[in-house]
Amino acid sequence: MDRNMSSFTVLFQPPFWVGILERWDEEGYSAAKVTFGAQPTDAQIYEWIGREWHRLRPSPAAEGDRPAAERKNPKRARREARAATQARGIGTRAQEALSRQREQEGQARQAVRRQMRQEAAERKFLLRQQKKREKKRDR
Fold this sequence. Notes:
Blueprint: E1 5-13, E2 16-25, E3 28-37, H1 42-52, H2 74-85, H3 92-138
Antiparallel strand pairs: 1-2, 2-3
């Protein structure tokens, strides 16, 4: 049975505390990042999740293997959790997903700017043509 899985990790990336959402669903792997600023308490994180979770915009889905859903020995799970909290930073997959999202947002902004520039140039051109016609009529 394939289920959607997600994890939310809070870590320190100098000079801010950030939260990383990683999500695996039928479409693939996606990630999102939120910056907290000062170190948030557990209560602040739970409150933020309840209030602002829906505003996170995950990156476009990419191919990615879903983590195994097998039960682990509790001692091994504790050891792996301790290792995960060590200062290793974000996984490269999350970084790639976030950079893809940032790149797509930049391309969308460029397309909007390009369209606005073209429209402004068209308006200026039409205005010049209109002035030429009026000048010719006055003669």
